[in-house]
């Protein structure tokens, strides 16, 4: 990005934004990951529940989160990122604190919906801000850095709740209150760190706006529901389904069917996040260097994830399972996210970029509403989590095959056009 486009903002403001939203994902994922390892302790307070009923807790959160994806984009365009983020995360914190005070399942559902609605303001705000301020040649890598916060948050949430509640014997509400306090801190951070355009000197703002307008090449690539983008939406749906199924139900599976106990549950599941950061950074840099090979990189990662999830059901011991989870972290959702986001950006019409990305995330996150409850239902009916994992793997394969067929057809069309 040219220096003109940054006029009026502090030097290296984009680095501050990348750090801010990486930290934001970390705190968000502390909340997302902390509840599933302590479902038994929660039931000691609210009474026995079916697996499907406990899975609905995560589904409620993701319902609120998903429902806000497209509306929050319009709100950001109208009022600006800061004015949307701060009220949103106040609602997020209120929802989390209400969960800590719940004594029955229904208030937890309501708190989870509120938390999801508040968090739903994050995606559009974070990526629109970074896209405006990060230099173009660094955008692939910065997306991976921002996304890496989710890996750190997953580790902290899983291991923290497992250690404090299962090992130290603290009340399950302890980790929930910690999460709420972190969200309050994040609201204050947004207030002091994010600069509203209205605060930039008018002359500098005009110069920046003109420079940014000069850099934009308006292209008309057609509907955001054309086949090439629809297959990306489908692929992201299947990718997120498998991932959120694992995040929600792997702790229960390990405890009930692999006899892994206590703090080892969170530690074992967090193996996914250990290699997620280097995996994301590696494949993001690869996609920046080989921009014409993005589709092939995506396909490789999706097929690898399918194989690892399927194989994880057969591994004979904990050591083998940890190896599989480490590989899934390196090759799974967190690795493919920055490449897929970049690929969708390449396919999108510049005039509808924000709406396209919002729609893309809406499809992906809608799977997170379905996966926790459906997997819980499958466990209730079959007595095992194995079939739920098989379903997640099968959906990944379907999404990858449809993506491959569509891209193969597009490649042939380009070859014919060239001929």
Describe this structure in words.
Helices cover 80% and strands 0% of the residues. By secondary structure, the chain is an all-alpha fold. The protein has one domain: Up-down Bundle (Growth Hormone, Chain: A), CATH 1.20.1250. Helix 5 (81-100) runs antiparallel to helix 6 and helix 8 (139-167) runs antiparallel to helix 12. The two termini are 36 Å apart.
- Which structural class should the secondary elements be placed in? mainly alpha
Q: Which stretches are low in confidence, meaning pLDDT under 50 for 5 or more residues running?
A: 1-5, 211-220
Counted up, domains total: 1
The name of the CATH topology is: Growth Hormone, Chain: A
CATH superfamily: MFS general substrate transporter like domains
Radius of gyration: 21 Å
Helical amount: over 70%
Q: Strands, helices and their partners?
A:
Elements: H1 13-34, H2 39-46, H3 51-67, H4 69-79, H5 81-100, H6 105-119, H7 122-133, H8 139-167, H9 173-193, H10 202-215, H11 227-257, H12 263-269, H13 271-274, H14 276-289, H15 294-312, H16 318-331, H17 333-347, H18 353-382, H19 386-418
Helix pairs in contact: 1-7, 1-8, 1-9, 3-6, 3-18, 4-5, 4-7, 4-18, 5-6, 5-7, 5-9, 8-12, 8-14, 8-17, 11-17, 11-18, 11-19, 14-16, 14-17, 15-16, 15-17, 15-19, 16-17, 18-19
């Amino acid at each position: 990005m040219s220096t003109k486009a940054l006029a009026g903002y502090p030097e290296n403001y984009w680095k501050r934004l990348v750090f801010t939203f990486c930290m934001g994902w970390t705190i968000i994922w502390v909340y997302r990951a902390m509840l599933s390892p302590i479902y038994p302790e929660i039931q000691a307070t609210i009474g026995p529940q079916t697996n499907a009923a406990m899975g609905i807790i995560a589904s409620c959160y993701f319902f609120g989160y998903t429902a806000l994806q497209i509306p929050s984009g319009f709100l950001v365009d109208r009022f600006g990122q800061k004015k949307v983020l701060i009220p949103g995360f106040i609602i997020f914190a209120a929802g989390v604190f209400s969960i800590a005070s719940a004594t029955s399942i229904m208030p937890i559902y309501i708190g989870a919906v509120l938390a999801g609605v508040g968090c739903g303001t994050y995606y559009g705000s974070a990526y629109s801000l970074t896209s405006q301020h990060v230099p173009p040649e660094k955008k692939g890598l910065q997306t991976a850095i921002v996304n890496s916060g989710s890996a750190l948050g997953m580790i902290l949430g899983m291991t923290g709740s497992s250690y404090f509640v299962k090992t130290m014997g603290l009340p399950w509400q302890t980790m929930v209150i910690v999460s709420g306090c972190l969200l309050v801190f994040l609201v204050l951070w947004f207030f002091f760190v994010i600069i509203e355009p209205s605060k930039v000197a008018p002359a500098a703002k005009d110069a920046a706006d003109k420079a940014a307008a000069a850099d934009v090449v308006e292209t008309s690539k057609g509907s955001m529901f054309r086949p090439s983008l629809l297959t990306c939406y489908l692929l992201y749906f299947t990718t997120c389904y498998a991932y959120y199924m694992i995040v929600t139900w792997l702790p229960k599976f390990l405890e009930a069917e692999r006899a892994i106990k206590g703090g080892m549950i969170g530690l074992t599941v967090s193996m996914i996040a250990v290699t997620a950061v280097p995996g994301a950074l590696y494949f993001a840099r690869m996609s920046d260097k080989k921009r014409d090979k993005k589709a092939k990189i995506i396909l490789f990662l999706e097929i690898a994830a399918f194989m690892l999830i399927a194989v994880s059901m057969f591994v004979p011991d904990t050591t083998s399972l940890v190896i599989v989870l480490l590989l899934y972290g390196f090759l799974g959702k967190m690795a493919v996210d920055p490449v897929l986001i970049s690929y969708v950006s390449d396919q999108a019409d510049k005039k509808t970029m924000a709406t396209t990305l919002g729609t893309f995330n809406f499809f992906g996150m809608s799977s997170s509403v379905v996966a926790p409850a459906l997997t819980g239902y499958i466990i209730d009916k079959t007595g095992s989590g194995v079939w739920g994992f098989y379903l997640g793997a099968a959906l990944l394969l379907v999404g990858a095959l449809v993506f491959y067929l569509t891209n193969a057809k597009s490649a042939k069309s380009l070859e014919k056009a060239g001929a």
